[in-house]
Every structure is written in structure tokens, then in C-alpha cells.
Amino acid sequence: MRQLVLPVGAAVFVLAALAAVVAAARQTGSGDAPPTPGAMQLPRIAAYATFTVERVEPGRLVVSGGSVSELPVGAETRAWRLEPADADAVQTGAAIAIIGVPNEVRNAAIRAIIVGDPGSPGPAGPFGGHEALGERFALPMVVGTVVRVEEGRAVIRTGAGEATAWPGEGAPVFRVREVEVDDIRPGDRVGVLLDRDGRPDPGRGLLVMRGE
């Protein structure tokens, strides 16, 4: 399976708090000792697989890079495409997911900032936003709604509190757009959720982005 390598140097997106991911231990030490920080808590995510589209044929996508060679699709199949954008896409009310790869120093290298429509329950339908990246360890580190943007600072409301982020020029921002299956092209990378038996289930939708 091919990996997408985003320019880490360009990912100037500083998080003041990984509120949805990093949980500081709430136990106080003895005396005046500061609280002991807890381990990084990784979010629970749905199982998925990532494929590369080789051919688009009536009723199916011929794919490579995974456990199956084709994905059945039809006019009823929903698809969400990740399109490159700039920091201006991060606007008040937008659903947002900040995708990162956790590391050993209790931090994360940011790989993508996924921005969905205002008022939507998530940035990309049932997807977390990382499923089409083709990067095995990428996870949605912060997921929530942008409540305000001021002086280059975005405040994000999450289920665990607020996180503050500063999107810089060249940050890997992707805007989500729902598209028809006919929009999918050879070379696209698609993320697909798995069913209980571990099989790709395109009936739940496809997350699409242009491949390398």
C-alpha cells in the first residue's frame, strides 16, 4: 500500500491543546509536586482500508493495494473528495479534523487538516478524514467545530474541551466536497470502512483524494 508523504515542514499548524487526544492525569502528587502527565490516549476509530483506483468500470472500481481487487459501486454510493485548500478554508462553523501521526514524545506530526461544511456532524460523512491518506498510523487527533477565527488563530470546540490552532501558509489543508461516483478517476486513492467481518463496505461511502 502506497503512503502519502505530506511536507512536514509545511505543516505549520500549532496546537495549543490536543484536547481530544492528550489527557493529562488529574491526580495530584504529594506536596507541591505538579500533576503527573498521563499517557497519550489515542482515539477509537473505525476499521478501514485504503486502495488505489486502477480502472473505473460500470458498477465497480478496479483497485489495488488491499485485500480485494474491486469495489462495487452504483449511483446510490456516496463519496466525499478531499481537495487541496489553503488556511482560509478554516472558517467559523466549519467541521474540522486535524490528522496526525503520534510519536514517542507525546506529540504528533500533523499530516492533514480536513475541513467540512458548517453545520455538518463531521468533516467527511462517516469518515474521520484520514482513511484516504494511505498513511498507516495517521489518526484524527482533534475533531470538532471551529467556533471562532481571529488573528490567524482558530479555536476548535471538541468533545473534551477547546483546542487552539494556528494554520500557517502552506499547511496541508483539504476541503471536503461530496461528489458523484462518476467523479472518481484512475489514480485516485479511496478509503473504505470495513464491515464486522473485516471486508470493505463501499455501501457506507468512499473517501477520495487524488493519489501521488
From TrEMBL:
<feature type="signal peptide">
    <location>
        <begin position="1"/>
        <end position="19"/>
    </location>
</feature>
<protein>
    <recommendedName>
        <fullName>DUF5666 domain-containing protein</fullName>
    </recommendedName>
</protein>
<keyword id="KW-0732">Signal</keyword>
